[in-house]
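User: quick one
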Amino acid sequence: MQALVLERKGELAIRDIDLPLEIGENDVKISIHTVGVCGSDVHYYTHGAIGPYVLKAPMVLGHEAAGTVTAVGAGVTNLKVGDRVCMEPGVPNLSSRATKLGIYNVDPDVTFWATPPVHGVLTPETVHPAAFTYKLPDNVSFAEGAMVEPFAIGMQAAARARISPGDVAVVIGCGPIGIMVALAALAGGCSRVFISDFSAPKLAIAAQYAGITPVNVGEKKLADVIAAETEGWGADIVFEASGSPKAYAGIFDLVRPGGALVMVGLPVEPVTFDVAGAISKEVRVETVFRYANIFDRALQLIASGKVDLKPLITGTYDFKDSIAAFERAASGDPSDVKLQILMEG
Ligand SMILES: [Zn+2]
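Assistant: Done. Structure below.
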């Protein structure tokens, strides 16, 4: 079967590769329609590794996918042939302690598409457990279905934040995940979300949404803006979505007493963390790793019209041009949010 294969760091090929397609009793077979290009896919392409996950053998990329069910295992009752679906790329061990606790995102045994050595889905067909495959509502397109995976991270962050209606939030970092977090925070009840970055084009994309206020930290200090906007009190919730160790300098100046810091961005190196700054305000600190029990809720929000992810799709490529899509993503154009690849037209 044809696939987009990362042969080694810096080398992509569209070629035939053997991928298993037997359907187990509780699996579905899916004809892939749309796959989003994720920062992690691009990072494996440019660096060959993310933290402990090192590319040691050719791997198919892609984990943000939507498609159509073409076959179902004998035990599947929630899906049928012809259903339009999106898929959760991480499959935990269903008998693990983490899964039994409902926190299957932190199951050490999870297998996750396009995380070495597990193949992704930039290929025409895949087989996936029905339990991690979600039917798209009729008014949700394949393109939106393939956006559920990154949006789920934003929703997990909003859930971890335990937002109260009317909360004021700050999101540090206006990349794709920062924007997803801001949209999820608004959907989760925040009255206002300030989002900060050095990049004016990125901020302009976020600013098209009502309720999101961009703050260009190349021009003004974020702490000054938040103090001015909250009468010196601070934001109820600060989401760190840049992954930059520098973001942690003075971060507790942004949080109100008794507020929360939610850490979403993954720094590549250890971070200096102002413990006294956190303690003196009794700040609640939360972490976010992927998501659990979120996909169906994300689909409901998109279907309701409360969250519109379509403006974030800034380019669409045919599969035959997928290497060009990756080159564009790797070039880091700040006016790009999400590029998608069509497996079928
Ligand atoms: Zn992703």
